[in-house]
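For anyone still unconvinced, we reproduce a single protein record, the chain in one-letter code, the fold tokenised, and leave readers to judge:
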Amino acid sequence: MRRQTLVGSVFSSILSASILIPSLHAAVQPRINTAVNDQARVSLADTVAPRAKAATDLGAAPANQVLSSVTLRFSMTAAQSAALDQLLADQQNPSSPRYRQWLTPEQFAAQFGLAASDLAQVKTWLASKGLTITSTARSGTFVTVSGSVAQINAAFGTQLHSLSLKGETHFGNLSEPTLPAAIAGVVGGITGLNDFKLKSRARIQHPAADPAKPLFTSSISGSHFIAPGDFYTIYDVNPLLNSSINGKGITIAVMGQTDISLTDAAAFRSASGLTANAPTVKLYGTDPGTSSDDIDEAMLDVEWSGAVAPAASILFVNSTDVIGISMTQAIDNALAPIITVSYGDCEANWGSSYLNIYNQLFKQANVQGQTIVGPAGDSGATDCDYDATTAVNGLAVDFPASSPYVTGLGGTMFNEGSATGATSYWSGTNGTTGGSATGYIPEAVWNETAADTVLLGYTSTFAAGGGGASAFFTKPAYQVGTGVPSDSSRDVPDVSLNAAASHDGYLFCSQGLCTNGFRNAAGNLDVVGGTSVATPSFAALLALVEQKTATKIANANPYIYALANSTYYGNVFHDVTVGNNSNPCTAGTVNCPGGGSIGYNATAGYDLATGWGSVDATNLVNYWSQIVPIGTSTTGANLSTVTLTESAFNVVAGVAISLNATVAAASSGTTPTGTVQFLVDNVATGSAVTLASGIATYTLATASLTTGLHNVTAAYSGDTNYTGSKATTQIDITSATAADFTLSPTAATITVKSGATATPLAITVAPLHGFTGSVAFTASSTSSTLYATYAFSTTPVVISSTANGTTNFTLYAYASSSTTGQAKFGPVQSASNAPAMPAWYAAGSGISVAGLLLLTLPRRRKWSALLLAVLSVGVLGASGCSSGTILSSGGSTGGTTTSTVNTTPGTYNVTVTAYCTPTGGTPIAHDINITFVVQ
């Protein structure tokens, strides 16, 4: 195997000049073949930031305000996309003459960028609008401009507004930008039209010194803290370092958006017993200064990537936007073979436009030989519910980690077992690099929400390793092996490392704390945890791989999964089989019909809590070149769409329903072929169905489905012309035999004038099979731009006999300004009983524990009234429900509401949920979907 790889590499090198490069430098065909007509415009879909939609509108932004980094991101033709995917596969295939033939940005431009003539027309048009060209991509994939708000508004046919979100002032576009049709045809999206950025969610702990204990063991909590020496011992890095495999000659680029302190970085290395090796900084655009939201994240990324690979060159790439500028420039300028980024957000909060834009950017990185490592998130399996104490948005994963072209890092925590056994893993003294661990320590899934609550003394938000199935990306060819779900989805994480913040957090130096080793004058330590520590640490392990193999890796995942499917599996990976990344959830919300918690358990082999588990670094490095990367097959690159319909939404268990999936070209083209796999709650049901004229039909048996809401997905496999794609719908199951109830609205559509009150909709609750109990109601909407309120005439509806109960559901096509500043859609509230409604937030992927809670990243959340406090109405009989009552109709929003925002005309989706919890029984929840038409 080793000889085959070497021969393939040499053969590729010989052929590169005569075969590869000429083919890549074939002229890109122009796509702007008509005159640019400024009057014939086309809007760009999904380019309004979710947080802009969630914010309070403060009016037009100042006309003279300057935007310095507005970037037009160019799309590829279907032929270019297909060629790129084929090249990515060939570069990982030892039998291909293009194996490991990485491109320069200019070579990428020659085949996959925008034609020079098209670029010239775009730049001419931009200049004609008074905008200044500040950057043109070496890869031919974007152009960046600066201009005033007035100029940007005029050029892109939108209106930039000043916005307020969670006490912060921002700006952003509230309508989709437009471009001349000729230019819109080559633009995939525009970034930089708002100043919302990802933020670290660092929380720092400062444990006090105790001379009677080993230096990094707390006498208060008994916790140990991880120094570089501990990492070397636990993950078996020492044999590599002893043989000079230390990252020398390899550059790791750390993505950031704040100035860093070289003094702190030097103090960390000194305290760790490491030789001096200062990071370098590359700034793009405006200097962000030192950001209190980001400085701790930046320092831990720089310090720990440099600790795990102590001789590597650490390049900190700085700007005002960690993804939109820093990551973009690191890839477009091919700054380093390994890129680590510790920021992210759940997929739903990006929007499809940004997911596509950045996924294309990550493909470019891979084809240039660059490896990207990102965090799977710190909110467990419910990534859209960061900063929550109960999940309402269902199962979700974090992007960029969910990209098939990024290696996603999950989190573990050490699991020493009994007190006696625990002491055997730690020494009473510290080594030269600060470590006291004696060897590998067993691991469980990182899940410390309860521990954080005790440690910090406040109601903790989620603190657990992210993982689950992507709702956007289909399963890549490499993702196979024992335990990998048959869910037709890109699953994360790929691997994990310790991410605990309380047990046991990592030591680092930030904001001048390390004046006495790792401690300050008061004897305190800086301790940090989260998948954003696991991420730079694993990126550094890959630097050791690159040094040992003397070649770039590009996408690491085909190698990781090849190792996991090889005879080396038990040597390379520590299989984590204990724990889960589950979080509490609110009954009646997505994926949580009956309350409790949702998430994934660790199991043998791959799982959605830790991926393949953690790694033995020495074996990872030594066995890397012994395997051939897997999953080199590709599908076509034309975008496809899936439309999924069900024959019934409310279904009695046991009654089969028909599912119909129609697959089509996203724009125009031939009819897709291939197969569609149907899934229920992300579990495949039956065999894949072959498309017939683009349609797949499946009969779904429902007898085994539990009562309540279920997600039904159709996942298209893709073919030689089209990429895979997904669509999801829902069905609501009613029991055929157990006590239950049904919901029946008098209509499925509510129509009202903007600013008016709709005619109440009667909803009947009909008991089944002896059901009695108290059924509470709430409503929610997936329409993120819906400004409206609602009320129920009665909630809960008490069912004490066989008679039906009724509530009237009223929608108001307006909302008070105080409400819209916090939530788009919620109940009418009264001053006496209305709890504060939560804001929507958006977040990055680092988390650290602190004695002080620092600023955390706002993370967008779809509003659900189930977040409201539940008031007990007493316990009913054993067959009934001890349900609560949420806020029903009240007066106007209390306080000093001064204005009202009318609902924008349009069609919105509203879901009404009825739920109860039987005493000693399984919670019951049912939904009905309402179409809300505002004229």
